[in-house]
Amino acid sequence: MRSPATKGFTLVEVMVALAIVALALPALLVALSSQIDATGYLRDKSLAHVVAENKLAELRLLSRVRQELFKGKESGSEEMAGREWYWWLESAATEVPDFYRVEIDVALDQGDAEEPLYTLVAFLSGDLASLQDDTEEQPGG
Questions:
Q1: pTM of this prediction?
Q2: Among 24, 37, 54, 91, which residue's CB has the most CB atoms within a 10 Å radius?
């Protein structure tokens, strides 16, 4: 029995507290580790999105200059944020005349074409003659 003047914890109370900490700490470390992995994945996915958007913008610009939309498949790589990104582009006609579906897949490894990190799908008009600048259409420009 403890006397009223005695202060502190018993050995049993200390052992129970240590057991609780020993069980909770690994669970906390696992949760923290998975959170760090998820943050890295989201960073990579965001950068892959930017790579795909850049490729789509490049495709639009080249189509405008050449007055012809790219048709078929193409692949390549580019560097962004200090890393090498691999992309695969495929343009195919749709059921709508002069309307094409463009799919751009982006991955970190060249062998990940079947499971890309990010896929961008866009639809582009093949009628590039109607895409003239507004300045050319206005008289007295």
A1: 0.69
A2: 91
The H or E element containing residue 89 is strand 83-93
Identify whether the C-beta of residue 132 lies closer than 8 Å to the C-beta of residue 110.
Answer: no
Residue 73 to residues 36, 76, 87, 91, 126, Cα–Cα distance (Å): 36, 11, 11, 6, 16
Q: What is the pLDDT of residues 8-50, one digit of tens each?
A: 889 999 999 999 999 988 888 888 888 887 888 999 999 999 9
What contacts 141, CB < 8 A, 6 or more positions away?
A: 135
CA distance 128 to 102: 15
Which residues, other chains included, contact 83 with Cβ-Cβ below 8 Å and sequence gap of 6+?
Answer: 47, 108
Classify 11-125 by CATH class: alpha beta
Domain map (residue ranges) of the chain: 11-125
**What whole-number distance in Å separates Cα of residue 50 and Cα of residue 121?**
13
